[in-house]
Amino acid sequence: MNGKQAAGYLAAEWVKDGMTVGLGTGSTAYFTIEKLGERVAEGLKITAIATSEASEELALKYNIPLLKASEVDKLDIAIDGADELDSQLNLIKGGGAALLREKLVALHSDQFIVVADGSKVVDQLGAFKLPIEVVPFCYEWTLHTLRESYPVPFEVRMKGQDIVVTDNGNYIIDASFGRIESPQQLADELKMITGVVDHGLFIGIAAKAVVGYEDGRTEIIEGNLK
Ligand SMILES: O=C[C@H](O)[C@H](O)[C@H](O)COP(=O)(O)O
Question: What pLDDT, on a 0 to 100 scale, did the predictor assign at position 226?
Fold first, then answer.
């Protein structure tokens, strides 16, 4: 068992009968969805909302019943991966371009649980490039505003020759901050820029993290949410 699997599986055990569940995106959330699928096959009764088209497909494959947002106001729990997490459970997410749906789902869940392997735990956020989701219209201007605002490299995310398009039809600009001294301040500032839809900083949202290690061990980090 690798760290991602250990973390993803353990968090899936916290889901109880009758819960509505937010299904995360990525290679760690994959294991949570897989385990939930196994539990559903054994009789667990849940409903879910997926944070990406990829996770929706996975849920359908595992016969996890999916809901539309119009059918539910709030989720009981959401379980999702992260690209970086610090000891305060501040996160960088969006390495897989799913940050916007992930943040919406996390913010509408009673409990947001992070699943990650040990390599994701950092002293300070920022080594991982911060994904910023922007509208395609005049995105060059948004890129220019970002470059004028922060003296760090920004790049539009590409796949080969093509600009990556998110499930919401937007683009991603990755920012190489290196170290983010004040995540909350940066999060607030980025949200104020016209053209920016959202960004991968998740501050004060996670209740708990399950960190998994190569040997199958897991560690729980408790957040300090009130
Ligand atoms: O956009 C993608 C998500 O934020 C993922 O949850 C994040 O990138 C972590 O993915 P993984 O578990 O594959 O490292």
Answer: 57
Q: Is the CB of 28 under 6 A from ligand 1?
A: yes
Summarize pLDDT for 12-40 with one digit per residue, the tens: 999 999 999 999 999 999 999 999 999 99
Choose one of 9, 28, 51, 172 to mutate for the ligand 1 pocket test, by most ligand atoms within 8 angstroms of C-beta.
Answer: 28
pLDDT at position 184: 97
- Is 25 annotated as belonging to a binding site? yes
Where do we find the tokens 């956020």? Answer: 125
pLDDT at 1: 66
| Of 34, 102, 181, 189, catalytic | 102
pTM for this model (two decimals): 0.97
| Burial track 146-163 (b if 16+ CB lie within 10 A, e otherwise) | beeeeeeebeebeeeeee
Cα 63 to averaged position of ligand 1 atoms, centre (Å):
22
What residues does each domain of the chain span?
3-120+203-216, 130-198
Q: How many residues does the chain have?
A: 226
CATH 3.30.70.260 for domain 130-198: yes
Please give the CATH number for the structural domain made up of 3-120+203-216: 3.40.50.1360
Which residue out of 83, 159, 165 has the highest number of ligand 1 atoms within 8 Å of its CB and is therefore the one to mutate? Answer: 83
Minimal CA–CA distance to 194: which of 137, 130, 153?
A: 137
